[in-house]
């Protein structure tokens, strides 16, 4: 089971950028007071997954690899749909790269970036230490992480 789980998770990790992008785009669209578009895009992505799972797992005989591939593809579908809808409303990139003004963003959001990096490093180290203690400690750690996540959000 371990080999299959590693295969699934390693392929599934390719979808992480799509998940992060999707969460960011949902926030941007919420800023425009548009909550219908993210729901629609994620609904289309989930519907695509419903069709891709049996196609990849059974028809192409990919098994666990097919499940991971279907998940990743559906996540990118949702993200690209949100980008497409957002691009109809705003100009996503300025004409010149220098017009992006990264310094202004870092100045106003530097503390937030630092806090986020610190939380991620702490969570990664904690998860690593719990994993070294065995399955019971890791399970307890995951329960605590879920409770923390619910309370923090």
What does this molecule look like?
The protein has six helices and no strands. The protein folds into two domains: 1-92; 95-153. Helix 1 (2-12) packs parallel to helix 4 (64-89) and helix 3 packs antiparallel against helix 4. By secondary structure, the protein is mainly α.
Helicity range: over 70%
Number of domains: 2
Low-confidence stretches: none
Our measurement of the CA-to-CA distance between the termini, rounded to an integer number of angstroms, reads: 33 Å
Biggest sheet, open or closed, and with what strands and sense? none
Q: What global shape is seen?
A: globular
Global mean pLDDT? 92
The total of helices stands at 6
The count of strands amounts to: 0
- Rg over CA atoms, rounded to whole Å, is 19 Å
Counting helices, strands and paired strands, the structural category is mainly alpha
Strand/helix succession: HHHHHH
Report the portion of residues in β strands.
Answer: under 5%
SSE arrangement:
Blueprint: H1 2-12, H2 16-31, H3 36-59, H4 64-89, H5 102-133, H6 135-152
Helix pairs in contact: 1-4, 2-4, 3-4, 5-6
Keywords: Membrane, Transmembrane, Transmembrane helix
Subcellular location: Membrane
Protein name: Protein DETOXIFICATION 45, chloroplastic-like
